[in-house]
Give the backbone structure.
Amino acid sequence: MATPTIAARLRRRFLLMTTDVAVRERLQAQVPTDWEMVAITSLDEAGDWNEILLYRFLLLDLDEVEAFDPIDVIRTLRMEYLLQIAVLCFGGDTDIQDEMRMSRADRFYAREEIVTVLPQFLAQYAW
């Protein structure tokens, strides 16, 4: 396992799991130049568990059912990898939100709301 550099640890970047191109473009428009949004549809695309730790948070689309299962994603993060990276969910109905809460997802937003709250999280996680 390679040891991450200090520069890698200080990079301001977050993960976005969605296939919705319109949401991805609207979110990207909110991302300042000193941040990086990395769009994925599988945790494997982000790397091993220790590489996922280098991201500040994960935005997770709960309306996805074709590309990935959000329940599997949160369970993999929390139970298999034992990671406490912030998971900010958007979309979905109350049933999936309740399941995500029980699996320890952190926050929930309406599909349209995630674009407006993203700048708050970028400021909060800018350390």
About this structure: The first strand starts at residue 13 and ends at 17. Residues 6-125 form a domain with the Rossmann fold fold (CATH 3.40.50.2300).
